[in-house]
Amino acid sequence: MPKFKRRKGRKSWFRHLPLMTAVLGVIASLILLPTVIRLRMKALIPYTAAVVKTNKGDFTLTFRSETPLAVANFIKLAKSDYYSDTRIHRVVKDLLIQGGDPFSRDLTKTEFWGKGGPGYTFADEIKADDAMRVGSVAMVNNGPDSNGSQFFILIADALWLSGKHTIFATISSGLDTVKNISEISGGPTGVPIKEVIIKTITLVP
Question: What pairs with residue 54 in β-bridges?
């Protein structure tokens, strides 16, 4: 009876199965990690909206679940009264209002308004289908991944800004208040001639 010899150097792919499984597991983990982190952050955010009270009226912004970093940052700052007594320091008629700068509390340092922040920055959360529409609440930045505490609210569509800023909320009530604030005349830098002060921000579960 003839004997068959195994070819030298021929290895069964089964021997590599454990290694292949491990490699595929690592790749899958790397792909899914951002999603897992976002889901965990969503679970840690107990608020859905915030009521912003100003001396010119109130408005409510409803958070977007797609931007947990920006939402968590806004909530953290609001809970620490970071925004209390700051001013809407920039208005662009028929377009937007801007606030969130701690320097805006000091009337003797108006030249620094628009330059303040919390002392750190965080990453963008810009989605491919984001569109800058009326009522969008978005982070002010100085380039990619430079978000801090300042935000702006659109009172008109600004599609040319789409893909450039993280939209973390939308105005769900009080848009008329925001529009009225934007109608206040601004100086060369957009600072409204009448003070618009954020008194408090109340978080809504």
Answer: 57, 198
Segment 143-171, tens digit of pLDDT: 999 999 999 999 999 999 999 999 999 99
Is the model's pLDDT at 127 over the cut of 80?
yes
In sequence order, what are the residues at sequence separation of 6 or more whose Cβ sits closer than 8 angstroms to the Cβ of residue 72? 41, 44, 45
CA neighbor of 89 nearest in space, from 14, 200, 6, 198: 198
pTM of the model: 0.78
In the structure encoding, which two tokens stand for residue 33, read together?
Answer: 């990690």
Give the span between the Cα atoms of 97 and 99, in whole angstroms: 7
Q: How far is 60 from 174, CA to CA, in rounded Å? A: 6
Non-local CB neighbours of 63 within 8 Å, separated by 6+ positions: 45, 47, 48, 49, 50, 71, 74, 168, 169
* Rounded-to-integer distance, Cα 109 and Cα 21, Å: 61
